[in-house]
Specification:
34% of the residues are buried. The chain contains no helices and 14 strands. The radius of gyration is 18 Å and the shape is globular.
């Protein structure tokens, strides 16, 4: 597992100048069925030195609130801690803040490789569909620059940059929206032994549980945990600590 990076040692992603401009290679697919994370162009609005924060909301922020959660994995589908994620996007009117840092910020994945971004649904501007920009960099590794997209957007069909592999899973949550996306980075890892897919749940699992460690789940699969039903949002292989109630990026209540 990667070791978290200190702010002092952050490479030139969020706290320094932009990199060489060469696009990193596509990340390889995960063994559990996850798709690779394709790279996309940086675009003209990236700025270094974004603030360290997981919420891009400020007093008076207009727009539909959006919470994006997910994980960052390496080549063996193991989560990576300390990954630097730098997000930037347009405001509700489709404009970027090029003088300050509104709707710009960076954060690090936690010990489980997880992240949470609190923001708004970005507005539209000519020529593009809705999207969120992101740079992802594991400690000591290259930068993956890409964009995240929203399903069901009419402009997805006309935006020449749109890539369906970068669609988030998005659902309504009252007057807000919740989204999920997992990144796969080109970081070598040594796989750890996992239980057989037919292994029964741990003895500590509550009654009424069909979810099992070591099972490969695909989007749309249904399981029960503690008497409640859940639907899989992202293909993955279940690991201890990823019980459905604990990982909203992977499971939602049915």
């Amino acid at each position: 597992m990667a070791v978290p990076v200190s702010l002092v040692a952050v490479p030139a992603l969020a706290r320094g100048v932009a990199g060489s401009g060469s696009a990193p290679a596509l990340t390889p697919p995960c063994d559990d069925g996850d798709d690779p994370t394709p790279a996309q162009i940086e675009g003209p609005y990236f700025k270094p030195n974004s603030p360290l924060r997981s919420s891009l909301l400020e007093p008076g922020t207009q727009g539909t609130r959006l919470t994006v959660t997910g994980y960052v994995f390496g080549r063996a589908c193991l989560p990576i801690s300390g990954v630097l994620l730098d997000f930037w996007q347009a405001d509700d009117n489709g404009a970027y803040d090029n003088t300050g840092f509104k709707f710009r910020g960076h954060q690090f994945t936690d010990a489980r490789g997880a992240f949470t971004l609190t923001t708004i649904v970005p507005g539209l501007y000519p020529g593009r569909t809705r999207h969120i920009h992101v740079k992802a960099q594991a400690p000591g590794r290259g930068v993956l620059t890409t964009q995240l997209y929203f399903p069901g957007e009419p402009r997805n069909n006309t935006d020449s940059l749109f890539d369906a592999r970068l669609l988030m899973t998005v659902r309504d949550a009252g007057g807000a929206k919740e989204a999920a996306f997992d990144f796969v980075l080109d970081v070598p890892q040594t796989p750890t032994p996992t239980s057989s897919p037919t292994t029964a749940p741990p003895t500590t699992a509550p009654p009424g549980t069909t979810w099992a460690v070591g099972t490969s789940y695909r989007a749309g699969d249904r399981v029960d945990y503690g008497g409640r039903s859940y639907v899989c949002l992202q293909a993955h292989t279940a690991q201890p600590g990823w019980e459905p109630p604990n990982v909203p990026a992977l499971w939602r209540s049915a």
